[in-house]
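Anyone opening a protein record will find just a pair of labelled lines. With that in mind, the following record should read easily:
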Amino acid sequence: MDLKKPSRLKLILQALQDQNAIHLREMAALLDISEMTLRRELGRHPQQLRLLGGYITRAFDEQLPGVYQVTEQDTRHVEEKRRIGKLAARLIEPGDTVFFDCGSTLPFVVDFIPDDLAFTAVCNSLNVLLKLQHKPHCEIILCGGTFHRKNQVFEHQGEASVLDSLRLTWAFVSAAGVSQTLGVTCFNLTEVAVKQKVLRQARHAVLLADHSKFDAVRAAHFATLADFQYVVSDKKIPRAYREAIARQGAQLLH
């Protein structure tokens, strides 16, 4: 039976509570309607929903160029991020304590962690937390504080004390820019302190960055390539960076 229009909107918004983007094809199947009908439905609600690169996401206010907003990043380089997530998830073993950084790539890592794997997850971002809650054998430690909507990060000065009491097996760290000369960077200064702390306290530091992040530089510097033992990217990573990673003795997974 065809759903009424208000019910369709409600179901779409409910689906987006647990993830920041959902593919048009997947949502059409959930609603049991055609993709064309769903496109028309989205057109009726431009203030609430947007279609970006084949993915449905909640509408957001237009932003200045260069300003990071995680809901927009969720729809970019999705296949590359999915590959990165699959490769990174394979590193986690039973009993590991893993820090999951903020950003749009980290939820894909959680997606590929087996549901029966018992591990401890440490995170400071809402989008990662929403994914982790579906892993039944995962113990979650959330670094709380003031919530920043654009990057969905919880920031608090007391956050350092939570991390000080932990020793991590893995630190999965995201970046918005990776440069051989200017280092590893992100958009937001509010992320720097936590990224640097987990890099110091993890047995294995892992950089997650798709090919579009290489040779890019953002405002907030937090590390160099030499600070990571693993780099997880996609097949399009520039050759110069493959060679640089090898020279520094890190392992490239792509």
